[in-house]
Model the fold of this input.
Amino acid sequence: MTRNFPLGTAPHIPSQYTVARIMLQVLLALVPGVFAYAWYFGSGIFIQIALATLFALVFESLFLRLRGRPLKPFINDYSAVVTAVLFALCVPPLAPWWIACIGMLFAIGFAKHLYGGLGHNVFNPAMVGYVVALISFPQAMTAWLPPLALADMIAGLSGAMAMTMAFYHRDLRGGTGQIMDLSLLEPIFSVLGPEAAAYELTGRVRERVGNGSNTASPRNVYVTSDERFVAISASMQVMAERLLRAIGAGWMLDDPRYATNAERVKRRDEVDAVVGGFIRERTLEENLAFFEKEHVTAAPIYDISQIVTDPHFMEREVIVDVEDPELGSVAMHNVTPRLSGTPGTFRRPAPARGEHNAELLTGLGMTGSEIETLTERGVLWRR
Done:
């Protein structure tokens, strides 16, 4: 006796669910990640999602037509939108529009429809699109903005230095006050070092190498067995020799391909594989103890939980508690640099919004009633 079981095409899901419902749940689950991305890297993520979604739907429609499939059931299952959002979360916020176009072409056209559509695809379409974009356009795909106001802080230091020089010229040299011409551009460009001179002399644009170096090897960040990180800089030949001998790779110094720094830089990936392999087999603590014993320049890369408990940071008072009227106290980085006679300190916490409105506006000639009127109208912030 034979029984005929009902057959259905992939994806195979319980009858109480639909593909669209599942995909909407996935999109809902991605919302916190999208806002976290926007918080750390900027609102460009929303542009990337819009671009990726547009191209995903265009290519979904195109390949459905080419396969002779109806559009509405597959467009309305939101699977293309999920692919677009997952891809966008892997893309730098300021990536050019054609990154999303090419990524979605390979994600939807090749990784999805080439294998027969949803439920038949062997690979995650979004990740296929990401890999293609990363391999094809490594510079555009690694142009991430730092999640902090880096240019602002460097410009602030430059501004403080300029003010000091201006005061010196005015007070000790009999000069007059000056206008400071300072943007965010020049200070952060200055930390790039001799890039302009190197380009002028060689005509070559040095490519990004992540945590590595175009001028020294071994020099990189390496992962330990407990998923921590160790930074090593063996820029000097004597340090490179000491490091390689210490980890049992002294044979590289007898090989012309690795004997000099110039040759090691040409084969940076091979050198990093040897050094990184040694470090990967040991914990952070074991690596640091080993390199300290061998007098090799190495240091851990900390997250904030390690920083606040590190004896060196604590002894240097890098972090101090500052009084706060709402929280009691807030941990902040200390004043830097500190002078021997006048080291500097926090005299009072940061003011609340509108705290000094009356004091400042009275000094500008406004009366108390005028200030109150502006406050009532919502022009000024009321504490």
